[in-house]
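Fill in residues.
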């Protein structure tokens, strides 16, 4: 097992585990290692957050994958600890989830909707790769009324202020009222703050954003803010994903 994989099993995402090892290092058998690809051997142990973890223990833990859906409310941070004392998703999970999990598909503090929580790094990577076409659907309340031509530009791909041109998306107008528009936007990718930047590139502003679908999972499964649902084991989750493409 590689050192990066060991940190994923303990608590970190793939990206954060790699960053932590490269920048801070992790002690393996008492010696500091800064190579994420370092191969752990039988009887090896690592030290992380002042705790010891033996390879045999991590291998056993790796077999126990868990999957949950969370309806994240507005005003909650997508992190497990905040230095300013703001509410985090960890506050929502206390007493409900015993396992160490990480979130898939970050939502901003002022956004709401579906989050997947898991300790399965392989699934996380699969869900977030655009080439796998795992669709995420959002309801977006916009200040203003974008024209049909502007919405078509969104669908075909628009260049953001970062210089990145988005992939094709689907945009549907759900409602228009005075100077507000309620849109449904479907994406197969997920850059940081992408929808807000897409709308900004048109010259408008997002007032509210809610994720209502993530692959085969829908907000109806966790209808109330703060609701959590256990999705079953790896095989059940895999079958749900496969049915999404059949």
């Amino acid at each position: 097992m590689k050192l990066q994989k060991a940190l994923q099993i303990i608590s970190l995402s793939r990206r954060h585990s790699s960053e932590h090892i490269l920048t801070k290092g992790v002690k393996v058998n008492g010696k500091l290692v800064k190579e994420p690809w370092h191969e752990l051997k039988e009887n090896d142990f690592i030290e992380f957050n002042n705790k010891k973890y033996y390879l045999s223990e991590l291998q056993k833990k790796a077999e126990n994958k868990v999957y949950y859906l969370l309806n994240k409310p507005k005003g909650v941070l997508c992190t497990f600890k905040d230095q300013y004392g703001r509410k985090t998703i960890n506050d929502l999970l206390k007493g409900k989830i015993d396992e160490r999990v990480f979130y898939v598909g970050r939502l901003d503090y002022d956004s709401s909707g579906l989050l997947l929580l898991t300790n399965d790094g392989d699934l996380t990577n699969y869900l977030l790769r655009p080439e796998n076409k795992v669709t995420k659907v959002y309801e977006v309340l916009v200040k203003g009324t974008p024209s049909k031509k502007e919405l078509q530009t969104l669908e075909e791909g628009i260049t953001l202020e970062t210089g990145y041109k988005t992939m094709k998306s689907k945009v549907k107008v759900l409602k228009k009222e005075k100077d507000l528009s309620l849109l449904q936007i479907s994406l197969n990718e997920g850059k940081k703050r992408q929808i807000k930047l897409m709308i900004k590139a048109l010259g408008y502003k997002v007032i509210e954003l809610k994720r209502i679908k993530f692959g085969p999972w829908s907000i109806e499964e966790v209808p109330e803010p703060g609701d959590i649902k256990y999705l079953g084991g790896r095989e059940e989750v895999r079958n749900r994903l496969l049915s999404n493409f059949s």
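The helical segments are 3-10, 14-23, 55-63, 89-93, 121-128, 148-156, 194-202, 234-244.
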